[in-house]
From TrEMBL:
Lineage: Archaea, Methanobacteriati, Methanobacteriota, Stenosarchaea group, Halobacteria
InterPro entries (alphabetical): ACX-like_C (IPR049517), ATPase_NBD (IPR043129), Hydant_A_N (IPR008040), Hydantoinase_A (IPR002821), Oxoprolinase-like (IPR045079)
Gene3D superfamilies in UniProt: 3.30.420.40
Domain Acetophenone carboxylase-like C-terminal: 599-653
Transmembrane spans: none
Domain Hydantoinase A/oxoprolinase positions: 201-486
Domain named Hydantoinase/oxoprolinase N-terminal: residues: 6-181
Protein name: Hydantoinase/oxoprolinase family protein
Pfam families according to UniProt: Hydant_A_C, Hydant_A_N, Hydantoinase_A
Length: 669
């Protein structure tokens, strides 16, 4: 990293976060409101960070980026008008899905509408079995289909044929003709997800086709603005926690669906060492939502089993659980007169009432103002002066509606309900997966996370909270630390006993070629291998690492251990090999960030509410604290992008890199 200036920019629902590391290893952070066209806010954020660092934008050597463009398209149904081509007789796979209910006991539950309506789903005469091609494709029929697709006004096409994961020849032929005949992107399932399970493969391919034109248009605008600014073409954070060139992402847009949350987990893993803990729970509370995940062994937990707005996406991604509880989440009263928080957010404009931009609805941020955690000396993003009176008015109105005494009672309720929502999310990635949260540390970041982290930790009996120096923009910081990473998968189903090792090794050779083809500098890449396995008769798999040579006995034992770790038992049943996986990684090296306190640490005192009432609480400028300094609760530590609340009974210690570690049991001042 030496002698290079790099900038990372993450776009969230409310703010766009920037982390800039200068050639002298000085870290500069910035936060600006997100914009409708996200590329506008990205450029504004880079300009703000560069101005603060005293450099010109054209001094930037590297630009990495995470955004919410693809996930917003799925959540808001604003993706491309997509067509689907599939095998004759399988037109409705996307709509039939799996025969399960979104909510077993909800009689009014409805499935989300398929991304591709039936009128834009087309069939082609062909057939492949697991043994090979039975009926080849007639190219003239495909050309006729192309004309129909053109006439329906499709902006992209997904192609998912039966058993194309095993024998892609027919699908390859269909995609080639459509790409020749149509001037729209074509996503083929064997290129997107060469994995069995017809519905999930088709859904993932449809998602790729649905978001590709949106991502392509966005990155085109961003690249133009970056060039005008003088910064390099961005490298993009993927959902798997690794970077990829913008050109690669434009061809595989589905990989960006959880781009921002993945960057935050990478940043948490970079800045917080687990030490003698079992691992880390990452807690990212932004303006719109809160994301939680696990880091074990220094690596973020990953999954291939995810849904976004009801649509299965099976590409590898950092395993993140999201709840609609952020600083901008609106508090409301339901039909049973119960206080609720989220998932609706006030967004960036008008934002919470305390922003003074015309918002009148009570939010979590307004509750924090009333409780005294955010005060008159705070300035979110370094720009927004807070209107405490508007926050009190909004909470007073909520108190009247729910039948509470005053704005303070409403604020306490909002704070507790929001924390309960987030605690449930943390339990879902710990207790519900066999992990004891008491053995983990909690890494808090996001604009609002450090305000709630210690209270959450108390409720979960977690004794350590880590607040990185760049906590308010940690996703952007994670972009500076992320490695380049590419994944590929292929289904190869076989009993593990007696499996043809030569066939397995040949498949791994193909996967290796696939992932290295996406790497910018293949000579610098390290390729790892893994396999998905299950007991005979199971309908789910576990992924285990595979060494340099595929040894069935070693792989079987790793699977038994993984199954026992996940579910508490192992079986003597036969083990089935299901999928082979390869991942190529180009490491960028650890960040070396210098830190030293600057200016006066103690700012003032103000009344802040804790369990027993309001207390006169010291307020510190976090950047004024030096390495080795201690702060005992109650205390509030302010910085431009975030605020840390240290409750009574907690103590904070500043590390050599500026990271703040909170431990329970600190003496009160």
């Amino acid at each position: 990293m030496a002698d290079e200036t790099r900038v990372g920019v993450d776009v969230g629902g409310t703010f766009t976060d920037v982390a800039l590391l200068t050639a002298e290893d000085r870290l500069v952070t910035a936060k600006v409101p997100s914009t409708g066209d996200q590329s506008v806010g990205v450029v504004e954020g880079i300009e703000k960070a560069c101005a603060e660092a005293g450099i010109d934008p054209d001094d930037v050597d590297g630009f990495t980026h995470a955004m919410t463009v693809s996930v917003n398209a799925l959540l808001e149904s604003t993706g491309a008008k997509t067509a689907l081509v599939t095998t004759e007789g399988f037109r409705d796979v996307l709509e039939i899905g799996r025969q399960d209910r979104p909510d077993l006991y909800d009689l009014t539950a409805e499935r989300p509408a398929p991304l591709v309506p039936r009128r834009r789903r087309f069939e082609v005469t062909e057939r492949a079995t697991e043994d090979g091609i039975e009926t080849p494709v007639d190219e003239s029929e495909v050309r006729e289909l192309a004309a129909e697709i053109r006439d329906c006004g499709a902006e992209s096409v997904a192609v998912s044929l039966l058993h194309a994961y095993q024998h892609p020849e027919n699908e390859r032929a269909v995609a080639a003709v459509l790409r020749e005949e149509l001037d729209v992107p074509v996503s083929a399932s064997h290129e997107v997800l060469a994995e069995f399970r017809e519905f999930e493969r088709t859904s993932t391919t449809a998602v790729d086709a649905y978001v590709t034109p949106v991502i392509d248009a966005y990155l085109g605008r961003l690249e133009e603005r970056a060039a005008e600014l003088g910064v390099p073409t961005p490298r993009i954070m993927q959902a798997n926690g690794g970077l990829a060139p913008a050109s690669t992402v434009r061809e595989h847009a589905v990989t960006t669906t959880m781009s921002g949350p993945a960057a935050g987990v990478v940043g948490a893993a970079e800045t917080a060492a687990a030490g003698d803990l079992a691992g880390l729970v990452t807690f990212d509370m932004g303006g719109t939502s809160s994301d939680v995940s696990l880091v074990r062994g220094g690596e973020a937990e990953r999954t291939t089993d995810a849904e976004i707005n009801g649509h299965p996406v099976r590409t590898p991604m950092v395993d993140v659980n999201t709840v609609g509880a952020g600083g901008g989440s609106v508090a409301w009263v339901d039909a049973g007169d119960a206080l609720r928080v989220g998932p609706r957010s006030s967004g960036a404009d008008p934002g919470p009432a305390c922003y003074g931009r015309g918002g009148t609805e009570p939010t979590v941020t307004d509750a924090n103002v009333v409780l005294g955690y955010i005060g008159g000396s705070s300035a979110l993003g370094g720009e927004l002066s807070l209107d405490a009176g508007a926050a009190h008015d909004a909470l007073a109105g909520l108190a009247d509606e729910v039948g509470l005494d005053d704005a303070l009672a409403a604020a306490r309720g909002v704070y507790r309900v929001a924390n309960a929502n987030m605690a449930r999310a943390i339990r879902s990635v710990t207790v519900e997966r066999g992990h004891d949260p008491r053995r983990f540390g909690l890494v808090a970041f996001g604009g609002a996370g450090p305000m709630h982290a210690a209270a959450l930790a108390d409720g979960l009996d977690v004794g350590t909270v880590v607040v990185p120096r760049a906590c308010g923009v940690l996703s952007a910081y994670g972009l500076l630390a992320a490695d380049e990473k590419h994944d590929s998968v292929r289904t190869l189903r076989s009993p593990l006993v007696g499996v043809d090792v030569a066939t397995v090794e040949s498949a791994y050779d193909g996967l290796r070629a696939d992932v290295l083809a996406d790497v910018e500098t293949p000579a610098d890449a390290t390729v790892s291998r893994a396999a998905d396995l299950r007991y005979d008769g199971q309908s789910f798999e576990l992924t285990v690492p595979v060494g340099g040579t595929f040894d069935p006995e070693t792989v079987a034992e790793r699977f038994h251990e993984a199954h026992e770790g996940a579910y508490g038992y192992r079986l003597s049943d036969p083990v089935e090999l299901v999928n082979l996986r390869s991942t190529a990684v180009v490491e960028r090296g650890a960040l070396d960030v210098t830190y030293g306190g600057a200016g006066e640490a103690r700012k003032a005192t103000r009344e802040a509410f804790f369990d027993d009432g309001f207390r006169e609480t010291p307020v510190y400028a976090r950047e004024g604290l030096d390495a080795g300094d201690d702060v005992s609760g109650p205390a509030v530590l302010e910085q431009n992008e975030s605020t840390v609340v240290v409750p009574p009974g907690w103590r904070g210690t500043v590390g050599a890199d500026g990271t703040l570690t909170l431990t329970r049991g600190g003496e009160e001042r």
